[in-house]
Every structure is written in structure tokens, then in C-alpha cells.
């Protein structure tokens, strides 16, 4: 790619990361209208949850081995999440996750092109609504009752620690990539991360409050009991803060403007 | 790549997506002769079905676990489909699928370089003929009777919904990537999508009328009873329409000429 | 990449594919000395066979499910083959396979920079010797007798058809990619192809006379009875011819010099 | 990418590989402060071991099939290691491994920008400390006792041969890629290599003294008995030497300055 390709980032860059050699503001100027961005967040989160829940149902119907079920579930999620970020990143940033939206607002809050409060107020409900729609769609595709509260308790303390680690890792990855101008790798990187986190965290890495809420609506493999939601969502928010702290530790506190100038 | 590499797209771009800064028509001028393109569609669809059917037979011969069978079947398809699109995309666009051919014609119908009726009339029979040939080849490689109608009934209502979702997702992906000038990622994106859709849709995502017809010719793991074909094919066409509607919703109704100008 | 990066191909291009706009001969001028290229073919083929044989042994020691054994065996081969082509392609072209070497000589025979008879006479023994060394190394790593003839009979007629298809597909892929100047994708494409071919061909896709010979030296999962070798090797040569015929059918008989001019 | 992108390497290049056409020293000038690099090595090695150990625990809790356990364990490691190299390579070079750090110092010892003794003295303790922290974190996430010496004996002679091969292959890959200026592929190449080496080496490829030490602290699937550590670590150092010898054999003894000039 020539340097004129630089704006073709796959996930929205906070404005602080924009090459100062470019005229200020173009990222904002080219941002699609809010309606399209919200539609992308809704559709993307819905399809993500449909993949997570649907592949879990398919796997439990085909094999009694729970390890194999999680393997199928995790690989389907890797494939599905990767293409959703690739496809919808250029529209909305492909957050599909309130923690990512909040962290994006936080890191870009002192810059002209960062997310505004109005964006957050539109993104988060779209993510939650999409997640619920995706769970219902998955249940419908497999002939299940459309809404049935999950009875899968996930409240043990070590699961909560797992959820902090899972979310911290996700935020560390996304905003660390942004620091080094590598967000074009986000589709494969974020999908791979989730593929690992399904296995290495005890909570199987929800790492996403919207997806967690959606997964409460289905009493299948990927479900979560509504009473376990507050703990998971709280730990995900904590994990987001830990993740941003790790970014500051490893990549430095300052914006990467200085570095961008050499790239 | 330099900007002069732009024509090296991996999947044929509808002419509406061509950078207006280029002289009009080059994509058409460099399109290989129809004979080669039809050969590519025939060979590509044949190999795709040989992969789908053959890996299903191999898997059922090696393990009794149906979950593991689908895992092997889906991973083999991801690997095979990805390289077929990479290899044959520059020749024919690597559709291998009448729904994709029809959607490509529809989205390019008002532009000079779009698919003509003559192209469709040549592509679709090549796809169907290739699919049948691929199923017969797979049966031959495994010492099965060359043609044996499948007895695998796939007519339940929720499977039909799964098939709508599967095809809508495929069309949303391909034509959404085209809108943002990202078709160079089609080999890995489309293959990954199918890898996810095998698992998250209840129908295991045929999403392709030609492949569905070919799979009726083999009474093995991946087969489909001929009487289930009309339902599947009808739902795939419905899914194609839903997919184009999703593209319009998320990416906008207008062609991406305006945007192409900045890339 | 800028156009000055063009020589950085991952697999040696037959000279017929070199951009005529470049001064003739540079690919030849930069080709590493024959000793290094032969070392690369020996080491690469040895490691390839060590991966194939070793992962087969590991899998059979860990699980009784033959489907799972082939899944582990095939995934390990995808990972291993991909990086061997990436690493050694810039040295020797990363053939590791007499059929590929012969097909490369054939397609480049009327051009100045093609493989010479002397190259073939050095490559093929290195490939065969490396394959044997790799099988012995794998046996040694797992505490097996270093050489023990395989008793795994693979002479059934439908397996031979599978081997023709496997090798034809491999040659179609490699030389088709070359026709469209896409050999930079060879590491992931060839590895993915083998990942699919393990499953969709009845022979589990040896597709390589040197590797077949090496696999005769180990009486483990991936072995082949010496008496089955002539049939396999003969069919692989037939497959190579079929593959080149497919390339001519789909990509045209002429060299791609004409097309290279526009890229 | 334009040639001005050259400094954006994913893993630190030994200075000998820097294009002499560039002003000398910029790689050094842009190297992040030692504190950040050490933090990256600590965090990266900790997360790597958390992935290896955590996914091993998860797998053994979900399935009784040891083959499936290793498959999940290896795939999670591929995903996790790949993104850690992608993310942290631009900071510290993403060694996470004393053998790689030592080999990097050795190959760059006569050049201005190579690793200094001070770097090694900081990197290696960070790697070992991180590995131990990662094992403890994994145990905590799964509700295990935080530290419990592994009882998994790994002292058989053929395992030691496996460990030599595993480490030799790793060093051959990394420093061979560097010779041909291909380190931008390190994230996917090194991760894929480890994915293969889990299976084709009898030792399941620790290939890393720091990780081996960390894995002694957990009595779970991925553990190693402390008494087996000296043998493993010794063989890993031997493997590192063998790997550098292979690089010299296949890629030549001289630095690649001569070649870099043409790229």
C-alpha cells in the first residue's frame, strides 16, 4: 500500500493516533452517518451472539464430549468474529462491546475526533439490543423456545477473576495495537485473542457486557443465569480499567503522535 | 502495493465499485474470455463439492463422533474454499454459487462492466454441472457407488430459517466487502464465514443452490434428499435478497463511487 | 509494497513469469548458490516429513479416535508446511517435492531463467534423502526403532484415484497462482490445500514421491508399505500432468508475459 | 507499504539486517526505553504461560481424551502467542524466551545496534519472573492452589532429543526469516511453528527455558517436574546452537547486508 492508503484503517482510530502530517479531521469527515454506524453495531453484535449461541447448540446436539463442544464453539467464534470486524470495522469501528466503546471514548476524550457522549448513548443500546436479538435468532434457528432464561450459574469467585483477565487482555490488545498503528490487524488479532481466551480463562471469556446480557436469554450451552450477570459485568468493567493501565505501562502514557510522525 | 495494483482484485468487482479516477472499462478489457471463466466456475465448484462431500465421507469412516465429523468437514471446507477463491477469483470471480452470480448481476446491472445475461446463462449451468461432477468424483475416490440419491431429509422449518440466515450472511459479507473496497480479503473472509456458518446455522449452511443440487447425488454425510432441495433453494434465494437489504441498511443505498474517490 | 519489491517473491517464479519491464536475468542473478538451495530442499523436506510422521505418532499415543488422530496430524502439517514454504521459499523455491520440481522445469523450459537439468539432478536426491532423514528423526524423537518398514498397505484402486486428484490439485494450485502472479500467497495456500486434501482425498494426499518414500521407512500412523510405493508415485506423476492440463484449460496456454505487463 | 515503512518491523531486527541505504542507527533511536521493553517481556511471557497452563487446565476439566486436550492446548497457544508477538514485537521484540534473547545478542554482537549485555540482564529475569507469574495467575483463575510443584516427569532421553529439535527449529525459523527480511511474518510464523511442534516433537515443544521454569510451578496438564528442568533447559540451549548452525548452512554465514541492498 502506498502511504495514501493510511486512512483505510479497519477499526476506527481514536483521533489521537492520526498521522499529524495529514490535514486534521478527515477521519471525522469520512465517518459514516450515525444511523449506519448504529445499524452496524446492532447487526454485528446480533450476528456475533448468534454465532456464539448457535454453534454452542449445534455442538451439544452432535457430541457428548464437552471439550469438543467448546472447541467447535470457540473455532466458530474465531471465524465469525474475525469477519464481522473486517466487514463492519470501516463502518462503526466494530466494537460490539460497551467496554470497548467506553475505552475508545476515554482514550480519545481530549481529541477532536473522539467518540462523543451521543455516540456512546447510541452504540451501547444497539449492542445490547443486538445481542438479545442474536440469542433469539439462534434459538429460532434450532427450534428452541425463543426466550428462556439461562440456568447456567457462573458466580464462582475464580470465574470472576477469569472475567477480569479476559477483558483486560482484550482492551490491552486493541488499544495497544492502536498505539503502534497496527489496528489493520484487528480482525485476525481480536478473533485469535477470543479463541485463546475461551480456553485459558476459567470464565470462557465473555469479556463483553452486551454479549453477556444476550446470553442470559437462552438456556443453552453458551447461556448465563441472569443472577450471574451483575458479577460478570462488574468484572468486565474492572478488566477494562486494568487493560488501559497495562497499555500505559507497556506503551507509555503519551499519545503516539510522536511516533506516528515516522511511519 | 502501489495504486497501479488496484485492478489485481481477488474477486471480480462490480463495475460500480471501480475507482472513477481510472479510465473506464479496464476491468472489462482484462476480463478473461468467457470460456476460461466458465471453466473456472465448473472446476472450482466441482472441487468445492469434492471437498465438502469427500471430507464428510473420510470423517464418517474414521470416527463415530458426529461433532468431530462436522469439525473435520468444516475445517477441510474452510481450507479448500479459501484457496479456490484465491486461485480462481482472478479468472471468473470465483462465485461457485448462483445466488452470488445473481446478486453480482443485480448490483452491477446499471453499470457498463456488470455481468450480462449471457454471463449468467453460462455461469449457472457450469456451477450446477460442476457441483454434480464434484459429488461423483468424491464418491469415486472413496469407492462408493458413483450416483446414489441422498436419503438425508432436511425439510424441518427451523432448518429452512437457518438456510435463509446462512445465505443472507454470505451475501451481506461479499457485497459489504465490495462496498468498502475490501474484496481482496474475500478468500479468507468467505472461507471463515462458511467455517462459522457450518456451526451456527441449524442447516449447516449450504447457502448455495448449485452445491445443494450436487449434494443430492451422494448418499453420504453431506448429502441432501432430493425432495428437500426445493425448500433449500427457495430459502437461499430469499436469503440472497435479505443479504442485499442488509448491505443497503448498513452500507447505504448508493454505489460507493463517492467513497472510492478517497482510496 | 512498491513495484521495486516485485523480486521479493516467496516461491521462485519460473522465468516466464518475470515482468518483462525488468531487466532480464535478475531473478537468476539473485538465486542463491546451488549448495544452499540443495541444503534448503534437504532440510525442508526432512522437517516436513518429521512433522507428518511425528505428529502422527504423537496423536496415536494420545487418543484412540482415528478421526481425531487425522485432525491433529493434518493441522500440524498445515502449520509446519506453511512456515517451511515461507522460510525456505526465498532460498530454493521450497519445492520439497519432485513433482513440483519437474513441473517447474517443464513450465520454464523455454525461458532463460528456468530450472536446468543440473538443478533437477540436485534437487530430487536432496528431497528423497531429506524425507528419509525426517522419518528417521521422528522415530528417534519418539523412542521408536529408527527404521522399520511400514506395513500400511495403500494399494486399493480408489486410493490411487485419490492420489491423482491430490497431486493434480496441488500442481493446479501452485502453477495457477504463478500465472496470476500470486505466488506470494503460496505458504498459506499450499498449506491450506494440504489441510483440505488430507480429508477430501481417500489417500489422505501424499501428493509427493519423496515424502512417500520417506514415509515407507516408519511403521507408524503415517507410513506406507514399500510395495504400495510404485502405485502412489506413478499416480502422483499422472496427477502432475493432469494439474498442468488444468492450468492450461483455466488460465490459458500462453505464458503470462502479456498479462504481467499490466501488473 | 512504501519503502519508508521499513522500520515498522514486527520483531526487532538485529542491526546487521538493517538496510544500509538508511541512515545508521534509526532502529536504535526509536527503540522504546528499557523499562517499557522489560515490562513488555514480563507481561508477554506471563500471558503466554497463562495461556499454555490455563488452556491445559480447562481442557482436562472438559474432556477425558488426552489427544483432544493437547489439540485445545495447542490451538489456544497458537492464537495467544501470535497476538502477543504482534502486539509486543514493536516494543521489546517479543522474545519471551532467553534462548531467543541470547541468539539475538549473538547474531548482532558485532553491530552497533545489537542487544547489549545490559539488555540481556534485564530481559532474562523479566521472562523468568513473568513465566512464574503467568503460571500462578492460571492456577488462580481456575481455583487451584497458587503454587504446587509439578509431578510430571519429563526426563526420558527421547524427550530431550525432542526438545533439541523443537528449539533448533524455532531459532532456525526466527533467524532465517530475519536473513531474508521477513520478520514481519513472525507473529503468524512463530505461532504456527509452535502449533506444529506441540505435535511433532515428543516433548510437546517447550523450547523456552523461562516458560519451562514457569511450568514447574503448576501441577496441571502443562506442568514439568522441577527435577526435569535442568535436562530441558540444557537441551534448549543446545537446540539454539543447532538452530544458528542451520541458519548458517542454509542462508549463508555472512550478514544479509548485501542482499538488503536490493530490497
From TrEMBL, chains A, B, C, D:
Alphabetical keyword list: Membrane, Transmembrane, Transmembrane helix, Transport
Cellular compartments annotated: Membrane
Main location: membrane
Cellular component, GO, one term: plasma membrane
Topology of the protein relative to the lipid bilayer: Multi-pass membrane protein
Highest taxon in the source lineage: Bacteria
Membrane-spanning segments: 38-58, 70-88, 120-138, 158-178, 185-201, 232-253
SUPFAM superfamilies: Aquaporin-like
GO molecular function annotation: water channel activity
Annotated family: Belongs to the MIP/aquaporin (TC 1.A.8) family.
Record-given protein name: Aquaporin family protein
Lineage: Bacteria, Bacillati, Actinomycetota, Actinomycetes, Kitasatosporales
Amino acid at each position: 500500500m502506498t502511504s495514501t492508503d493510511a486512512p483505510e484503517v479497519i477499526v476506527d482510530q481514536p483521533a489521537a493516533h492520526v498521522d499529524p502530517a495529514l490535514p486534521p479531521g478527515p477521519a471525522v469527515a469520512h465517518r459514516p452517518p450515525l444511523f449506519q454506524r448504529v445499524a452496524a453495531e446492532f447487526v454485528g453484535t446480533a450476528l456475533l451472539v448468534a454465532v456464539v449461541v448457535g454453534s454452542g447448540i449445534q455442538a451439544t446436539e452432535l457430541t457428548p464430549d464437552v471439550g469438543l463442544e467448546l472447541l467447535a464453539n470457540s473455532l466458530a467464534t474465531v471465524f465469525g468474529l474475525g469477519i464481522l470486524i473486517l466487514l463492519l470495522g470501516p463502518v462503526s469501528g466494530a466494537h460490539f462491546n460497551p467496554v470497548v466503546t467506553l475505552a475508545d471514548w476515554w482514550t480519545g476524550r481530549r481529541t477532536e475526533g473522539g467518540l462523543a457522549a451521543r455516540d456512546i448513548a447510541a452504540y451501547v443500546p444497539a449492542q445490547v439490543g443486538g445481542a438479545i436479538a442474536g440469542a433469539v435468532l439462534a434459538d429460532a434457528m434450532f427450534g428452541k423456545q425463543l426466550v428462556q432464561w439461562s440456568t447456567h450459574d457462573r458466580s464462582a469467585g475464580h470465574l470472576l477473576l477469569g472475567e477480569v483477565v479476559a477483558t483486560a487482555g482484550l482492551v490491552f490488545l486493541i488499544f495497544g495495537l492502536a498505539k503502534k498503528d497496527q489496528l489493520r490487524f484487528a480482525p485476525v488479532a481480536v478473533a485469535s485473542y477470543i479463541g485463546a481466551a475461551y480456553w485459558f480463562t476459567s470464565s470462557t471469556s465473555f469479556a463483553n457486557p452486551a454479549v453477556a446480557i444476550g446470553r442470559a436469554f437462552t438456556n443453552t450451552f453458551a447461556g448465563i443465569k441472569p443472577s450471574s450477570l451483575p458479577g460478570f459485568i462488574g468484572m468486565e468493567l474492572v478488566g477494562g480499567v486494568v487493560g488501559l493501565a497495562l497499555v500505559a505501562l507497556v506503551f507509555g502514557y503519551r499519545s503516539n503522535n510522536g511516533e506516528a510522525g515516522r511511519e
